[in-house]
Write a structure and sequence with these properties.
alpha+beta, four-stranded antiparallel beta sheet, globular
């Protein structure tokens, strides 16, 4: 960790030092590529009340907060929690508003790095109950972005008209995240033509 004065103040192992044993057990997946947990996580700097903080909000919601000046993990105070929630909520609206305005630049059905912050903002909109994000979620809920595709030869010759072919399909990831958040916000998503995608998406939120 490097302080604002450019001094090394500490080194924190996120998995070992910042997460509880239960979090590692419940939320961290061990894979051949290493531990996986960072998807749908927000990472950012913040300066509430003159502090210099680095914050990680994992997808399950419990913030990891580091005081950069001391290089130490700290607990959120009620004031800090409120300030970070406001900052996160404002960022959600900012990103989603921009996504609507610039939709033609990224919503082309291809995997695009520009979609990752949009999908995070869409997810956090529901977790944080950001009502100001609702109009943008409604506008983006028919996105053509496909986060993953599966294709195989099984089922060749079988007529799957009107159904999802379990052997060859694309998943409209952003649509699913938006529908998740709209439900969290008490809104009913619009279901358009999406026969090639599953809608049974579920994310935990604490």
């Amino acid at each position: 960790m490097i302080s604002p004065e450019e001094k090394t103040t500490g080194c924190i192992d996120i998995l070992r030092d910042a997460m509880t044993e239960k979090e590692r057990s419940d939320y961290v997946a061990d894979t051949t590529a290493g531990p996986m947990w960072a998807g749908r996580s927000a990472w950012y700097f913040s300066k509430p009340e003159g502090q210099h903080l680095f914050v990680i909000r994992p997808w399950w919601g419990r913030r990891i907060v580091v005081d950069i000046s001391s290089g130490r993990l700290i607990r959120e105070t009620p004031d800090t929690r409120r300030a970070l929630t406001v900052q996160e909520s404002q960022k959600v609206v900012e990103v989603l508003e921009s996504a609507v305005v610039e939709r033609k630049k990224w919503d082309n059905g291809e995997c695009c790095d520009r979609v990752f912050p949009i999908s995070l903002a869409a997810y956090l909109a529901g977790c944080l109950h950001v009502e100001a994000a609702i109009p943008y979620l409604e506008s983006l809920q028919d996105s053509s972005f496909s986060g993953s595709s599966t294709s195989g030869g099984l089922g060749y010759g079988v007529d799957f008209s009107g159904e999802v072919n379990p052997h060859s399909y694309s998943t409209y990831t952003l649509r699913q995240i938006i529908r998740f958040s709209m439900r969290k916000l008490g809104r009913v998503p619009k279901f358009g033509s999406s026969s090639s995608a599953h809608d049974g998406f579920s994310l935990e939120s604490r």
